[in-house]
Amino acid sequence: GMLAVSLLSNYCVYLLLAAKARIGPRARTIGDIGRESMGRTGHVCVEMCVVLSQMGFCTMYLIFISQNLELYLKSSGLSANDIVWLTLPMMVTLCWIGSLKLLTPFSVVALTLIFLGLGYVISEAAPLLQDATTIELYKPKTYSLFLGMAIYSFEGIAMAIPIESSMKKPQFFPAVWLGGCTFVTLLYVSFGAFVYTCYGDAVPSIITLALPVGTKTTLVKIGLCFSLVLTYPLMMFPVFEILEGHWGRALFQQPPQQLIDEDEEEE
Description:
Keywords: Membrane, Transmembrane, Transmembrane helix
Pfam family, one: Aa_trans
Structural class: mainly alpha
GO cellular component, one term: vacuolar membrane
Mean pLDDT: 79
Organism: Hemiselmis andersenii
GO molecular function, one term: L-amino acid transmembrane transporter activity
Order of helices and strands: HHHHHHHHHHH
């Protein structure tokens, strides 16, 4: 299932890049491709899908952060909702950075923290492998949930054009994208299968909640939460590009049509 979603996602990205290359300089954003394909309706529909999907995906970041930190901050009287509000100032500040190149250092730090966290989870799960219980290879009741999570795992299609545009040598982007997605797919499949085999059906949806209580676990959870805070502005970049682009000009720079008509009548 994960492999199928990965292949479909990559195929869609290459179709997107092929459409952009065929349209030419007019296709600067994914919305421009929608407009060239289906007119204004396609433009609006594509941009709406990007905004809603990326905002929905990034909501999972907030859920992960709040559930992992709630255990440590509950004694202070802070709920999960309070934790979300506390993380917003840092996220908003980072979201003001309007360049992917400037966001690169934050992404490097985030990736480092994520890989350290994955390594710790594997080290804690490995001793349980010898006592692994019987697992179900296929669960029809939860397949729709799995499919949604698999799609969420490959939610980067909206980042394809912005990343390609920011590269010094965009002609190498397809190969870079394929290599990155291949590595990520292998990591998802191998890590998920290994951890699920170790913990069995009792594994929680957020794997860090299964880690033992201790200083190392606390540091890992804080590190992973911090990595998501640093990754959040990168994933929201297509949203801000749309909101500050066509939608922003329409809402804040162009006067209402009624005022334009009144001015023309006065002239």
